[in-house]
Each structure stands twice: as structure tokens, then as C-alpha cells.
Amino acid sequence: FFSVQYFVMWRVFAGVGGCGVLCASPMCWSYWQFCAARQDPMQGHRPFGASEEAMMRDMSGTPVTADRNPGVRIMSNFCSADEEKLLIQEIQHMMMTQGVNQIDERLAPIYQGQMAHIPNAPQVNMRRVTGRFERQPMGTAQWKYGDQFAPEGLPPMVRKIAERIQESKDFKLGPLRDVTMNYRHSSFFRLDPHVDPLGDGENVFILGLNSNAVLTLSPRGTYRRQDEVQIAKKSWTDADIDSLLPQRGLLMLCGPARNTWMHGMRQGVPVPPMKISWRDWLAGRDPSVGQPPLCDWWGRPDSIVHRNSVRYSVIFAFGHSEPQRFPSSWLGGNQY
């Protein structure tokens, strides 16, 4: 229960009055209420429904019911196939003009070596465009970030999707604070577990394009496997939750799922051998040739989810629906 947000508040206000107790000022109380709200998986959004239960599995393959859902909502076909094509065109243009490689050159050989057991292992890759300042020499996109976010800088179709999310009656959202675009190829979708910067906003949406994928939620404070081969086979912890994100689907993280659980994507496992029909055998054809080398599993290792070679995603982060009564910089908005 004593999360990092409460610790930060203690560090800010401890010592007031010379006795090291929490300040009882309105700003302190406002921040306390905000921290409590961050642990609420509802926050005015629609209740969890059949869609979430159908697409979420624990590590035994059991569906995750509403009472066990930490704050995930999943919507299939949030955009049409035609809209997907336009979105991909916009993302491709942004990647060509502003995209930056996200794999540290010192870590790339390590990541590549962790796939030495995989036949025809894919090239390590991750390319991104974001308005958030992350590190040099990476620039920032024209739509900026946080309190300075400028939606008019977004490509037209991306902005249309952002407005569709914000206007949906399923959600109770504040202003848009961040948009990030990601591009992956060769079925390498690995994303190590992390929590997005708090300054991004309270409500995070992931729009998956051109491929199905499995997003894994992993709790903090639990023993975590470190060997990538074992992680690929068993996940990071036995308490992880897999969420199926279908192509053109939208996945939302809020409450504990956004703030206290980490999220990531496993490296993937080799695609199981395909059965060859007698016709292919006689013709000397191998249907597995040209297929992506890696696939996902969902809830159980024998529940395979195939990946396309290329995947795009757009991350939309919205602030809390209630106005904040303290500087957004307290949440790290100026540090990422």
C-alpha cells in the first residue's frame, strides 16, 4: 500500500513544523487524494466487461475476472482497416523523418546474444518518435509533451484517433499529454517491464497496428526471473497477467495497472514447426519459409499467438479528469 507516490509526498512534506510529520495543508491533502485515486482501477471509466475477461489470462491460462483486473480495458477494432493503413503511412513518414533507434549500442550485442538459441534470430530493433525529451541526441516531436502538449502538431489520422478516445463515453479523461509512436520489425517485439513516466498522464492507451501482440503485466515486489530463455518460456513471474492486444485493438492502462504494475512484452519463442502437407512435400515447398521467427504465447506456453513481421503502435497518454492542484513537475513531467 505504501507506494512510491506516498514516499515522495513524505519527502516533500516531512519536517514541516520541525517534527517530521506530514503536512496537513490543502495542497498536501490534495496530493494525498491524488495518490489514492491512482490506485483506483475505475476512476469514472466504464466497468470491466466480457471483453477484458476474454482477452486476459493469468499464468495458468485462467481468465482474469473483473475482481482481479488491476485496471486494464481492451477494445477490439478501435480503428478500421482503412484507418489503419493511413495511420501506418503517417507513422512510416514520422519514422523516416524523426525516428530514433531506442536500443543502446552497448546493450544491442547483449540482447542479440540472448537470442543465440533461436534459429534465424531476428535483428534487435526498436524505433520511436515522441514529444517527450528522453536523451541526447534524440529530438522531440512537434506536438511536444505534458503541459505544453500541442495536438495541432499531430498527423491528421493520429489526431482523429486521439479525439475519438477522448470523446468516448467509456472513459473519463483529462487533457492529452503525450503521444509516442513505435516501430518494430522482424517479429522482435521485446519490451522489458517498466512503468511509464508519471508525467505522461494517468490514463495510458496503446493502439496496436499490423500485428497481434501480448502485453504482460508484472507485479512489483515479486521474485523475477533474470534469464531471458526462462522468461520467454515462463514469463517474469508466476503472478504475471497476459493481455491479448489484437491488431487494430486499443488497450488502456489506469489505476494499479498503470502506476504499480509494470508492463512489457516477452522476447518471444520460436514459431512451432508447421505441418507440411503431402502436396507441399511432393512439390518441395516449405510453408515455414519466410515466416516471422518469433511468436507470443498467451497465458499458457501452448496457447500460441502468431506475430506479423512488422508491428506499429501509438501510445496516447491523458491526464486525470480532475484538475491538479500541484505542479505537474512533481510527477516527473520535466525529467523524461
Automatic annotation (TrEMBL):
Keyword Transmembrane helix belongs to the record: yes
GO molecular function (one): oxidoreductase activity
Transmembrane segments: 12-32
Lineage top rank: taxon: Eukaryota
InterPro entries given in the database record: AlkB-like_sf, ALKBH4
Keywords: Membrane, Transmembrane, Transmembrane helix
Gene Ontology annotations of biological process type: demethylation
Descriptive protein name: Fe2OG dioxygenase domain-containing protein
Lineage: Eukaryota, Discoba, Euglenozoa, Euglenida, Spirocuta
